[in-house]
Specification:
- The protein folds into two domains: 141 residues, no CATH class; 46 residues.
- It has five helices and five strands; from the N terminus they run αααααβββββ.
- The chain has a five-stranded antiparallel β-sheet, with no helix packed on it.
- α1 runs parallel beside α5, α2 crosses α3 and α3 runs antiparallel to α5.
- The radius of gyration is 23 Å and the shape is elongated.
- Keywords: Membrane, Transmembrane, Transmembrane helix.
Length: 198
């Protein structure tokens, strides 16, 4: 019951951390494209950015769950084999002796586990932001974009575009044959049509 209460206390901090990671990822991605995304984001966009990232990419959810499971299983294996030489070398900083039982050792490992997970998530989100931004920038410069949407703006002319991102107020896209990123308010676009992959 105490563990459940601790988890309930830590959930808001965990969500706040995910919001910071989402902001960091978006800022790094758009910085490479010359856009200060915070100027174009509402509070709602900021609050849902980590959930939107995870919902739009099932692979990201799988990676996050895999990382958590890996560290958890690694901890369990390390504690179960605490009497073996390889485990003693890894746990050397704890000065393991015969008096330390496995339950105490497990409790001692919790702070390490609680530190490694946020660091791994930080590396993951920063890497995703950097990688995505870099790929988009190169594709724009070489005009190697897969145009995934067709828009009809107030002018009524349909245009094939590569959609970089959408938030509650703006579309960020590159029109076919153009190297400039356009930022259009949502109200200025009449129709947004997904182009089916062939």
């Amino acid at each position: 019951m105490k563990y459940l209460e601790k988890i309930q206390e830590l959930l808001p901090l965990g969500y706040l951390y995910l919001i910071i990671l989402g902001l960091l990822k978006e800022s790094i991605l758009f910085y490479q494209l010359g856009i200060n995304i915070l100027k174009y984001s509402s509070i709602t966009d900021i609050l849902i950015s980590p959930i939107a990232d995870m919902a739009s990419s099932p692979i990201l959810i799988i990676i996050i769950i895999s990382v958590v499971l890996f560290f958890f299983l690694f901890q369990v294996i390390l504690v179960k084999n605490s009497d073996k030489n390889w485990s003693k070398k890894l746990l050397g900083s704890y000065k393991i002796n015969q008096d330390v039982d496995k339950r105490t050792l497990q409790k001692m490992m919790i702070p390490i586990f609680a530190t490694l997970i946020p660091l791994e998530l930080l590396a993951l989100f920063v890497g995703l932001g950097w990688g995505e931004g870099n790929i988009i920038k190169k594709r724009i410069n070489t005009q190697n974009l897969k145009y995934n949407y067709k828009i009809i703006s107030e002018s009524g002319i349909p245009t094939d575009i590569y959609m970089i991102d959408i938030n509650s107020s703006y579309y960020f896209y590159v029109a076919k044959g153009d190297k400039n990123i356009k930022i259009a308010p949502v109200g200025k676009i009449n129709t947004l049509e997904l182009i089916k992959k062939k």
